[in-house]
Amino acid sequence: MTRQKIAATLFAALLPVAALADGHSIGDPEAGAEVFKKECSKCHMVGEGAKNRVGPELNRVFGRAAGHVEDFKYSKGMIRMGADGLTWTLETLDPYLTNPRALVSGTKMSYKGLKDETARGDLLAYLRTFSDQPQNIPEAEPTALAEGNPVLAPEVLALVGDAAYGEYLSSECKTCHQADGSDQGIPSITSWPEEDFVIAMHAYKQQLRPHPVMQMMAGRLNDEEIAALAAYYAAIE
Amino acid sequence: MRLNRRTFIGTGLATGALLSAPAIAQAKPRVVVIGGGAGGATCARYLAKDSEGAIEVTLVETNPVYTTCFFSNLYLGDIRDFASIQHNYETLAQSGVNVVNDTATGVDRDAKTVTLAGGTTLEYDRLVLAPGIDFVEGSVNGWTEADAEVMPHAWKAGPQTQLLKAQLEAMPEGGTFVMIAPPNPYRCPPGPYERVSMIAHLFTNINPTAKIMVLDPKDKFSKEGLFRDGWNRHYSGMVEWVGPDFGTGNITVNPGAMEVDLDGEIIKADVCNVIPGQMAGKIAGIAGVNDGNWAPVMADNMKSKVDENVYVLGDASNQGDMPKSGFSANSQAKVAAMAIRGELTGSQVFPAKYSNTCWSLLGTDDGVKVGASYEPTPEKIASVQSFISEVGENAEMRKATYEESVGWYNGITADIFGG
Asked: What 3-state class would DSSP assign to B178?
């Protein structure tokens, strides 16, 4: 994968929040029903009588903590994110559907991601109809995006990381994340693909991924530092 | 005269004045508002206030004194007296609104007239419908509005609220209060559950062995976690909530026998509060602006989707995500007043901003809240952010939330009826 291509992918993963904000609406639920049929229905059910299949049923997914459908066997990564406080909302489902690994490392959802912004918006609008409606439950998850969500410029995401600088910076990470790749209680970040690393860090920085410590750590890393760490960790055998 | 861009800009003011001259020569533009609650009274007040007399505003309201639904549960709980939730229209009338104490019985949208029960006909340039709710006939098996004298709904505040209170106070020791909760959508989503809290509070003081049973057709309700936690902490063992898993989809009431048939099980009630399914206040149906039970409106200004000269506010409207609450109606009314004024006098119209907060009282000094902000989208008014109190907040915070709600009540009623 070329730098340029990676940048495009990252951009696609993180842009939608901003892109959707212009029009406010999520999308067209009727068109979303078709997207669901084509992209999701092999593994997921939604609507009356929906049951868990390869993936969990999706009724009331908006506002639900990640990894919390009863009797569904989730990946370790998903359970961890749920425990950290990841909740499914417009802001989190959008990047998740764009690239599941951006939000949940090690997710069992072996889906390449839906890059088409319109299709994704339609799909989210469709899924939203099966969750609590704010008219009845005012605290229910929003159904549209407000103006002024954070934007990540593509040039920021195209940065080439300096692995040597990353090694220096990584001392802060190694306090918790063991270099030998063990993942007891804390996930391993060793040999993490560069693009996943960068997306994940920006997702923490934008507070899309939960976890107060990681939000704090990522929050004070600048864009070059994130790229440098990604380059360093990707190269560790 | 040929208008090029330059001369147009230069003469904009003069041209504007010329174009509006005929309107000024005519009688003032007239707005008739039907319904003097949180939506209608606010709209009338803002139209009169902000147009500074340029618009003739008439408010039609059946009741000379208005009783707010919000805080009426606190009256049931003995935390407020009845007079404190009543408001008259004197200040509104003094501030330039023509207040007509009558009931609108007809709307002719072609002739742009409203007829009143008293025989008067009012002409309008713009009509604002803010009639609140009425009940869906047959929504609760065995109950009609005529039975409200036995099994009160108390979902329009006033004599019904007082009747329910009197029944609760007269309930035999250790008796059973049954509430039939309404199906979605209805006025004030947390309202039935705040009512349960306030009635439990009343019973704790005057009838501590009484029981409360809530029969709910819904499997989830607003602030559910907060209410359940509050019931456990303040009224342990008193409140039983029954959902659709236990037959609430099949309920018949028998007002004559004071019984409720819950999926074959007969429950004897000493007091029974039936809150039926709801629809837009009758005049909206008469005016022909409903689609189904509610009146669809444009998200950016609350204008009816059926008639460009009609606006619908508050509970009666189908606008999207905003809950049917007094706060919502008040918020929508200000947007509509700005839009109407823009249409009739050319004043500036800014993008709509809507918001809502619902406070609920769980027990003495134990207040919680839920709120959201909303923005118009092409399809509807959409929720873009929401917040809710958390279970486990300390007493200090809960007291502050309650005090905030009292401040809000004073503020919003001044905003609706005039300070």
From this structure: strand
* A92-128 pLDDT, tens digit each: 998 899 889 888 988 999 998 998 989 999 999 999 9
- Summarised one tens digit per residue, pLDDT across range A150-161 is 445 566 667 889
Regarding beta strands B30-34 and B126-129, do their DSSP bridges make them parallel or antiparallel, or are they unpaired?
parallel
Bridge partners, residue B178, by sequence: B213, B272
CA-to-CA dists, residue B165 to B70, B150, B287, angstroms: 16, 13, 35
Amino acid at A56: P
CB B254 within 8 A of CB B390: no
**What is B5-10+26-132+281-417's CATH topology?**
FAD/NAD(P)-binding domain (3.50.50)
Cβ-Cβ contacts under 8 Å, B222 against chain A: 136-139
**d(C-alpha A50, C-alpha B224), whole Å:** 24
Rg of chain A on CA atoms, in Å: 18
Q: What is the pLDDT of residues B199-208, one digit of tens each?
A: 999 999 999 9
Cis bond upstream, residue A150 (ω within 30)? no
The helix (run of H) or strand (run of E) holding residue B332 is helix B326-345
Q: Considering only CA atoms, which of A195, A194, A190 is closest in space to residue A13?
A: A195
> In chain A, which residues have their Cβ closer than 8 Å to the Cβ of B192?
none
Q: Which residues from A are below 8 Å from B384, CB to CB? A: 24, 142, 144-146
Query: CA gyration radius for chain B?
Result: 23
DSSP string for residues in A21-78: HHH-B---HHHHHHHHHHHTTTT---STT---SSS---TT-TTPBTT-STT----HHH
Q: What are phi and psi of A53, to 5 degrees?
A: -125, -125
**The model's pTM:** 0.81
- The pLDDT, as a whole number, for residue A147 is 60
State whether A143 and B383 contact (CB < 8 Å). yes
pLDDT of residue A101: 86
Q: What is the mean pLDDT of chain A?
A: 83
**pLDDT tens digit sequence for B365-389:** 999 999 888 989 988 999 988 889 9
d(CA A63, CA B220): 13
- Identify residue B364 by its one-letter amino acid code: T
Residue B147 per-residue DSSP state: G
Q: Is it the case that residue A2 has pLDDT exceeding 50?
A: no
- Nearest one of B363, B73, B358 to A140, comparing CA atoms: B358
Q: For residue A155, which amino acid is it?
A: E
Give the closest-approach CA distance of B391 to chain A in angstroms.
14
Delimit the CATH 3.50.50.60 region(s) of chain B: 5-10+26-132+281-417, 145-274
Residue A225, amino acid = E
Q: Each residue of B26-69: pLDDT tens digit?
A: 689 999 999 999 999 999 999 999 999 999 999 999 999 999 99
A-interface mutation test, from B375, B389, B391, most A Cβ less than 10 A away: B375
Q: Residues B324, B330, B335, B337: what is their CA dihedral angle, to the nearest 10 degrees?
A: 120
Q: What is the mean pLDDT of residues B174-193?
A: 98
Q: Do B184 and A144 touch (CB under 8 A)?
A: no
Burial A154-180 (b: 16+ CB within 10 A, else e): eebbbbebbbebbbebbeebeeebeee
Distance from CA of B388 to the nearest CA of A (A): 6
Percent of chain B exceeding pLDDT 70 equals 94
Lowest mean pLDDT across B16-25, B156-165, B273-282, B332-341: B16-25
Three-state DSSP at B388 gives strand
Provide the token pair at A121.
Answer: 């918006």
CATH number 3.50.50.60 given to B145-274: yes
